[in-house]
Amino acid sequence: MKKLLITLSFLSGIVAFAQKAPKKDSVKTENIKEVVMTKKVFQKKSDRLIFDVANSPIAKGTNSFDLLKDTPMVSSTDDKTLKILGKNSATIFINGKKSNMDAEAIIAMLKSTPSEDISKIEVITVPSSEFQVESNDGIINIIMKKKMNDGVNGTLKMENNQGYYNNPSSGISVNFRKGKLGGSGNLNFGSWTQRQYYQLGNGDNTFAQTSEGTITDPNLNLGGYLNLDYEISAKQNLGFSYNNRFNWSLDSVSELYNEGKNLTENTINRTTTNNVEDSRTKNHSFNLNYEWKTDDLGSKLVLNSAYLTYQRNQENVNVTTNVDSQIISRKFQQKIPQIINNYGFMADYIQKLKKETTLSFGGSFNKTKTDNDVTLESIIPPTGIDAEQSNHFVYNENITGFYVTLEKSFGEKFSGKIGSRLEMTKSNGEVLGKEQDFDRNYNSFLPYLSANYIINKDNNLSYAFSSRVRRPSFWQLNPSRMYLTENNYVQNNPFMKASTYYNQELNYMLKNSYFVVLNHSYITDVTEQIPLQRKIDGVTELRYIRTNYGDKQEFGLTVGMQKMFFKGIWNANYTATLNHNIFNGIVDTDPITGDVFPAFVLDKKTTFGSLQFNNDIRLSSKKDWYLGVNYFYLTSQEIEFGKLGSLQSLDLSLKKIWNDWTFLVEASDILGQNKVDIDSRQDNGYYNIVKQNQYNTQVNFTITYNFGNQKLQKIRKSQNANDEIRKRTGG
């Protein structure tokens, strides 16, 4: 049910400034060299933008997540995800290595890490070939400060969120170093109950169906990680990391009132649908890393192996009752368990050559198996196990990848980088006992090119082109249905193909404070959730089908400013974006059942814009009181599903720093305008309406205490061979 609700919100990867985020594919990473900074706060270097945190007055007494929200080109409006240029999902790296944590754990870690520990933040809008990232995702690389002393330090954080419900959480992070051994660990716990209100409508000029009601989803979360790093010698390091996360969502309840109106016969059928869901999720990840510096120029060999296991047990009971007679018309129990196991291996070598030249190459291998044993038992009518909707689906996927890049500087003004990735994917899906299976094998050649020209000390121009693949999440491939009402449900699709992205960007920087970005993405075999409707015995059936529909183009123009006024008292981070998207495709068949529907045609264009204003104001000369004023506005736009109404949010914060304590009060969505309203209408007369209120008006109070030796050296961060796979688990 939660997967269904998240999808229906259409805030995950679709809406520019409103929500989620986030998804993890196969392998890779590579070291990013640390750039020696001058006293400029914001700089453009080669293929990335660099925010010099140490020289910024806003970086005192806050946490890493809040600091990232004030980084140029980075934004967050739900306090849970980070976006680049308002639309591209952000992949977090630490000291050039991808973080070995799932999305929620990464955010928890960032919120518990003091901003004083950060030296620089690098924003890479178009990653090069050595980075394995999805679609048009960008990278945020956090460079930690280097400190030399042994000892122990840590951060204790206590947080209380008051929205529709009260949601407390707490966490502790500890770092230690003794001689050649260093380590860090984190333990966090919290409860979060999400409240949502839905208004749904669909039909045509002869029949109208509406559903309205609430969803209450309680969650308990427990997570943590342990990282160890041992310095074998001056040039060799061995690292180990373990990460886990547990989620319990018990008695998640949706209660909807439904009306089906026959407009030709003027009759009404009234029902209620009650769905109660219990789910338990756990994942564990282990990683072993070896690094050998082969010379004094920066050349190095990195070897990595990893294991990931993910398990989710979900069970729900769905009951539809006639309002007038109080007779149960349908009742069923559905079990949707999923087990994912992944083994990942990778090797990277970076060779520093003469004349400012770097050659990088490497390879990776990922083996993933998913096991999905779906059972649907019809209780009323008493037909027992539904053989059509019960299936045991096993999916195997092997991804082998190779890359090579060559980077060179031609004097002080011009530098360039060229490279490519080759990814070979072999996959097989089988429904056990039904003789239903398929093989999907394909190779992806993914080129990359970038160039950077420093016109003079105040002007910089750069261009980048990259090709990427986006594979479906594993839970989306599981051939199961998730019901909202008796005739309204989401259907997954194991036959979805990977989408291919061709991204290019032109970036101009003025005086390290102002920037203009032009970007374009062409996407083939786009994957989306498409609503298909048809009439059966006078009732409209609505299926949200996950499938490939055609191609899409995205054009963007972003103008931004990162500037301090009044000697650092006021820090302003402003961004304005104009976008134009073109959709081209058609869907008329359920790929699982072969049922034919009236065609859902995607032949439209849309132009929309957004504004993001972040202001940090120092209120005292002692630098212990700060005021934050943030605002975003997104105009209405067409998305695949339909027309999305405008969104906006005004957020305020007040921060007090007292010795090692930081007190922060935040009020989000003060105007109460961050709500979803989608209206889809087809030429064949069918329409579909989704309105959702997630009660985003909230007040958050956080207390952070830093303890121990604050001059402790951070351990070496290591990449993980299955980081991208984690995105696709949905965990």
From TrEMBL:
It is found in: Cell outer membrane. The keyword Signal applies. Residues 292-705 form the Outer membrane protein beta-barrel domain. Keywords: Cell outer membrane, Membrane, Receptor, Signal. It comes from the Bacteria. Residues 1-18 form the signal peptide. SUPFAM superfamilies: Porins. It holds the Pfam family OMP_b-brl_3. This is TonB-dependent receptor domain-containing protein.
